[in-house]
Design brief:
The protein has 7 helices and 15 strands. It is an alpha+beta fold. The strands form 3 sheets. Strands 5, 6, 7, 8, 9, 12, 13, 14 and 15 form a 9-stranded mixed sheet that branches. Strands 1-4-2-3 form a 4-stranded antiparallel sheet. The longest helix has 16 residues, at 306-321.
């Protein structure tokens, strides 16, 4: 069984000058890069209404890209009834509070059980939207707020707003090490040289601009509770930047938060609890943006989940028991 699909998107600012096939692989990651390249060569991809047959052709910010193709039924993702915690919804968009453990999008070895599968079930028309309307992501084990488009016009507007940094995204995190003050990390991020599932801080010119602002909400003797605001939205940005300044997130399996460490006078139970925290301690707590069509200023907050509340209580108790044994960094 075959299905006609139309995929539409607008090239964001940070993809200006990128090759068409590279841009499509990021915009429409439902599909393999080889399949997208094939569609280009078959004349099924238009840029600003003009068919483009050269995968290496450079594209510009705000270019309109449309793919009209036919796929076999096994090539598209299956709708699944997955519970969605909807915080807000109207005809054009919705805001959800994603739980930790829910992947946003299918990937290698995972084609079911994701947010995208759930969106296809609840909103069947989203099959015609890029990524089923997903305009930004959270890592599987990061909880919190996401805005999702329900119409193609909302996709265009929200992608532009995010690329212009007009969407405010704030997070709460628990990191390793006692921090005295907040600050800013302004370091470019690119793919790790040897581990392709990781990102890293790279020399200027080799990655994308990435800026993270953070302030200390609470200090513990060997950890800190932070509030962070993204100025950009790179893959793993907070996790990479915090690890770069030697304060990785508690529980982070990729960037150092699960490495065993010595904490003076800590009980074996406390050390085991912190070192086996089951996910990176990161929650998207606040989301603010102007509604793209009504002009209304929308602001949402998602309560910190129970596992992070418990983590903070454990750290408070340890600090009360050992107030003088400060651990500064990683």
């Amino acid at each position: 069984m075959s299905q006609n699909i139309e995929l539409t998107s607008v090239i964001p600012e940070d993809m200006h000058g990128m090759r068409l096939d590279q841009a499509l692989s990021e915009l429409f990651s439902d599909y393999s890069r080889n399949r997208l390249k094939g569609w280009i060569l078959e004349g099924l991809v238009t840029v600003n209404g003009r068919p483009v047959l050269v995968p290496r052709e450079k594209i510009n910010a705000n270019d309109s890209v449309v793919i009209n193709a036919v796929i076999d039924s096994e090539d598209h993702f299956i709708p699944e009834e997955i519970p969605l915690n909807i915080v807000y919804e109207d005809d054009d968009l919705l805001v959800i509070n994603k739980p930790a453990g829910l992947s946003v999008h299918p990937g290698a070895g995972r084609r079911t059980g994701t947010l995208l599968n759930g969106l296809l079930y609840r909103y069947p028309d989203s099959i015609n939207l890029p990524r089923a309307g997903i305009v930004h992501r959270l890592d599987m084990d990061t909880s919190g707020l996401m805005v999702i488009a329900k119409t193609i016009r909302a996709v265009h507007k929200l992608v532009k707003a995010i690329s212009r940094h007009d969407v405010v995204r704030e997070y709460e995190a628990v990191v390793i090490g006692h921090m005295t003050a907040g600050g800013e990390v302004d370091e470019p991020i690119g793919r790790h040289q040897t581990n392709r599932i990781m990102m890293s801080v790279v020399p200027e010119g080799y990655g994308k601009e990435a800026v993270t602002h953070y302030r200390v909400m609470e200090k513990f003797r060997a950890h800190s509770r932070l509030r962070l605001r993204l100025e950009t939205g790179r893959t793993h940005q907070i996790r990479v930047h915090m690890s770069y300044i030697k304060h990785p997130l508690v529980g982070d399996p990729l960037y150092g938060g699960k490495r065993a460490r010595f904490i003076p006078n800590a009980s074996a139970e406390f050390t085991r609890y912190v070192n086996t925290f089951p996910r990176q301690a990161l929650h998207a707590i606040k989301l603010e943006f102007v509604h793209p069509f009504t002009g209304e200023e929308l602001s949402f907050e998602a309560p910190v989940p129970d596992d992070m509340i418990e983590l903070v209580e454990v750290l408070r108790e340890d600090t009360r028991e050992h107030p003088d044994d400060i651990v500064w960094g990683f």
